[in-house]
Amino acid sequence: MSEVISTSKLSKRYGSTYSVQDMNLTVREGDIYGFLGPNGAGKSTTLKMILGLAKPTEGKVKVFGKDFAEERRQILDQTGSLIESPSYYGHLTGLENMRVVQRLRRVPDNNVTEALKIVRLDKHKDKKAGQYSLGMKQRLGIAMALVSWPKLLVLDEPTNGLDPAGIGEIRELIKSLPERFGMTVLLSSHLLAEIEQIATSVGIIHQGKLLFQGSMEELQRRSYPMIMIKTADNSRAQRFLAAEGYSPQLFEDRIAFAGLGDEEAAAVNRRLVAANIDVLRIEEHKKNLEHIFLELTGKERSL
Amino acid sequence: MLKQTLSAEWLKLRRLRIWIVLLALPVASVLIGSANYAMNQGVLQKEWYSLWTQVGLFYSEFFFPVLIAICCAALCRLEHMNKNWNMIMTAPVSVASIYYAKMVICAVLLLLVQFFFFLLYIAAGHLLGLPAQFSSEVIGWMVRGWIASLSIAALQFSLSLVIRSFALPIGIGLCAAFAGLGMYVAKLGMFFPHSLLSIGMGVLGQGGLSPHQQFIWVLMNLLYFIILSIYSIRRMSQRDVIA
Questions:
Q1: B242–chain A Cβ distance below 8 A for any pair
Q2: In three state form, how does the secondary structure of chain B look?
Q3: InterPro entries given for it (chain A) (predicted)?
Q4: pLDDT-derived band of residue B131, with 50, 70 and 90 as boundaries?
Q5: What distance in Å separates residue B159's CA from the closest CA in chain A?
Q6: Residue A244: predicted pLDDT
Q7: What is the pLDDT of residues B57-93, one digit of tens each?
Q8: B71: in domain
Q9: What is the pLDDT of residue A249?
Q10: Closest CA in chain A for residue B98
Q11: Which domain does B64 fall in, by range?
Q12: Distance from A74 to chain B by nearest Cα, in Å?
């Protein structure tokens, strides 16, 4: 798969602090690349540099293998984007807003109708955008990004302001784009769950630096399973098993084992039963991505 | 490419209430100027020309520069609001074409304003009982006023494209209008956009311009327009977009 976006040593400095530092981002064709990080980590700044809205202090951006500085227009012609929050002219209707983009991008009428339909704004197209709800503005923004059926779609926090049903809908839409239209999607979010559900590749950014980049599977492989056993008497079970050479840990109302294989799990069960300790539950717990994320960013901080 | 940005820009004018300002300010100039003329007919005896000095004075020294400033500020405000710079600066068009689209729209609006002002002047003259025939010089003043208004527009755009406030560039424009009057009085009128407007509309000086002066006048307008436009476009392309 060819690289749609590649940045090398991309950095942005405001004053003396780096908002983005030495970012080597690679987005491959057909990817849904989830750009994950806490608020203020530098996600929007990175996306803005990819789109030429912000000028890098150092480093380079290549989109479709072309140098951004030299082929800005050709790149933008095949790129749709929604950055920060949706753009709209409040005094114009939804449809008129779409017409503005249509004229700038020279796309046929059909695209406008189709894009409005796809975000389900077709019934509200004659209402002034200024009177739209936050969710409708977000949909309009997505329609504007989609209207030229670009090869690359860059979406900054696309589900902002949408209600739960809307989030699900937009998520399904984004997921379908690579297959239906051959698009590559780069989207940012501060919500791990969202990235987990949409993305095929992940980049984790924290304090301007890329801490992890790889496929979703790679990230998930970092999670190792824990075997949790609930017994009628956990503390006795723990003492007993520790004496038997295991290293169980008390964890809430269960005892937990790290890296326990199937056979070992069965052996532990047999021993507990033989020792007359009733086994109530045996469960496998995967360490969730949240833990991995917190491990990577090194801090127990809210996303 | 200019066709793309221009047609997009044209669409944005829909339902904008800028028309009110574009119509109201020329009316105000003509009303005040005509009242002044009517009350001072004893000293103002040159009929159409005298009326012009009154009406044109208020218009070119105050109302028209403010109108230009408002027009430019309004066209930029469209983009400053609701993150529209993000959208327009990621469209596959050159930055220059975005700038010139705004400039062309502004120029067309100012031409209409100028024509409207001309009609008002003629109407006022007839209402004041002036003879049917007015001096054809007026047409030249109108056209030159329009040309000078583009230099002022280039100046106002250089402010409004960067300053997110709607009012601040208009305030600066107003100060510049007064400064222009000072420059005119100090015989430095050829070197300042606002005094180029005063000279072009012939409201302060009695005699016309010599061919040599006319040449300098056109050249200075061209210079202002080109330098300020290049400055604005460079700034737009080189600075980070703050939406």
A1: no
A2: CHHHHHHHHHHHCCCCCHHHHHHHHHHHHHHHHHHHHHHCCCCCCCCHHHHHHHHHHHHHHHHHHHHHHHHHHHHHHHHHHHHHHHHHCCCCCCHHHHHHHHHHHHHHHHHHHHHHHHHHHHHHHHHCCCCCCCCCHHHHHHHHHHHHHHHHHHHHHHHHCCCCCCHHHHHHHHHHHHHHHHHHHCCCHHHCHHHHHHHHHCCCCCCCCCHHHHHHHHHHHHHHHHHHHHHHHHHHHHCCCCC
A3: AAA+_ATPase, ABC_transporter-like_ATP-bd, ABC_transporter-like_CS, P-loop_NTPase
A4: confident
A5: 20
A6: 85
A7: 999 999 999 999 999 999 999 999 999 999 999 999 9
A8: yes
A9: 80
A10: A104
A11: 2-238
A12: 7
Q: Give the model's pLDDT for residue A303.
A: 43
ipTM: 0.92
How far is the alpha carbon of A164 from chain B, nearest alpha carbon, in Å? Answer: 24
Structural domains present in chain A: 3-215 (3.40.50.300), 225-286 (3.30.70)
Structural domains in chain B (count): 1
B243 occurs within a structural domain = no
Q: Which two tokens stand for residue B72?
A: 């430019």
Residue among B15, B83, B89 minimizing CB distance to A85: B83
Amino acid at B87: M
Residues of chain A under the 70 pLDDT cut: 1, 223-224, 287-289, 298-303
Return the pLDDT at A302: 46
Range 172-231 of B in CB contact (< 8 A) with A: none
Taking an 8 Å cut-off on Cβ atoms, the answer to whether A83 and B90 are in contact is: yes
Q: Cβ of B16 under 8 Å from any chain A Cβ?
A: yes
Chain B CB contacts of A81 under 8 Å are: 86, 90
